[in-house]
Amino acid sequence: MLSDRALAAFRSALGADRVFDDAATRAVYACDETPRRVEPDAVLFPTSHDEVVALARIAFEHRIALTPRGAGSGNVGGALPAPGSVVVSFECMRRVLEFDPANRLIVVEAGVVTGEIDRIARSAGLFYPPDPGSSTYCRIGGNLAMNAAGPRAVKYGVTRDYVLGLRAVTGSGQEIRTGCRTTKGVTGYDLSRLLVGSGGTLALITEATLKLLPAPEAVATLRVCFNSNRAALDAVSRVMQQAVVPCALEFMDHRAIDAIRPTGAADDLPPGTRALLMVEADGAAEDVPRQIAALEQALAGDGLLGMKSGFERDEITLLWTARKSLSHAVKQIAPLKINEDVVVPVSQLADLVDFIDHTAHAHRLAVVSFGHAGNGNLHVNLMVHPDDADEMERAHLAHDAILLRVLALGGTLSGEHGIGTEKRRFVDREIDPPTLDLMRAIKLQFDPHGLLNPGKLFPD
Amino acid sequence: MLSDRALAAFRSALGADRVFDDAATRAVYACDETPRRVEPDAVLFPTSHDEVVALARIAFEHRIALTPRGAGSGNVGGALPAPGSVVVSFECMRRVLEFDPANRLIVVEAGVVTGEIDRIARSAGLFYPPDPGSSTYCRIGGNLAMNAAGPRAVKYGVTRDYVLGLRAVTGSGQEIRTGCRTTKGVTGYDLSRLLVGSGGTLALITEATLKLLPAPEAVATLRVCFNSNRAALDAVSRVMQQAVVPCALEFMDHRAIDAIRPTGAADDLPPGTRALLMVEADGAAEDVPRQIAALEQALAGDGLLGMKSGFERDEITLLWTARKSLSHAVKQIAPLKINEDVVVPVSQLADLVDFIDHTAHAHRLAVVSFGHAGNGNLHVNLMVHPDDADEMERAHLAHDAILLRVLALGGTLSGEHGIGTEKRRFVDREIDPPTLDLMRAIKLQFDPHGLLNPGKLFPD
Question: 357-416 in B: which are within 8 Å (CB) of A?
Answer without folding.
Answer: 372, 375-377, 410-416
